[in-house]
Amino acid sequence: MAVEITWWGHATCTVEDSNVRVLTDPLFARRLAHLRRRRGAVPPPGAWRADVAVVSHLHADHLHVPSLARLARGTRLLVPRGALRAVPGLRRLAHLQVSEMAPGDVTTVGDLSVRAVPARHDGRRLPVGPRRAPALGYVIEGEARTYFAGDTGLFDAMAKEVGPVDVALLPVGGWGPYLGEGHLDAGRAAEALTRLAPRSAVPVHYGTYWPIGMDAVRPHEFHAPGEEFVRLAAARAPGVSVHRLAHGERVRPEVTR
């Protein structure tokens, strides 16, 4: 096995490579402020197990302190530089080994390396106040190279900054009916495939959480992005194998190195 990907919903995935488990943007809540989990069970305790967890940016649906508190003692946690200052709750997670990352930084865990790469997204904890931490993506490299994009828009240097990858975990939606600047929708994610040219891709960040009381507001924006990404990827990047997973489903993408 080169790499195994499990999608738990939203931006939360387990990447298993080289006998190391990496957990992305852990979110184990049934409800988060005005958001309710509308599809897929809350990830079971087995999903909480990781050797290292990565956080892409400070928004509460990506850096969720109560979910991080469930990680086992000694788990390494990689967060954007400035996160410890901007999110005081992180400093109470004394059972975790927290390291701040900036683009270009690399952390080694066993035979695996985790490299922080830039993302184009507003990474602040709140929509007002100083920009204290960058939004990041991560390239997880062991037997395969897996790119977890976090939240990002397209940017000119994407292919150069991310580098060659085998698998891309790309956001294709959001948690509401509108996506602002600094996001990928299904079409922009398909365009990202043409730039990154991975062998495989998994759409994430859609079809999990939806605002309470907005069931009738453009519901196709909740249900459709995964299928739309599959369709557009087939047209624009036919050489990429797209794996649209159900919540809790896993896949072992083919990797040729």
From TrEMBL:
Domain Metallo-beta-lactamase: 21-206
Domain of life: Bacteria
Listed name of the protein: Metallo-beta-lactamase domain-containing protein
Natural source organism: Streptomyces caeruleatus
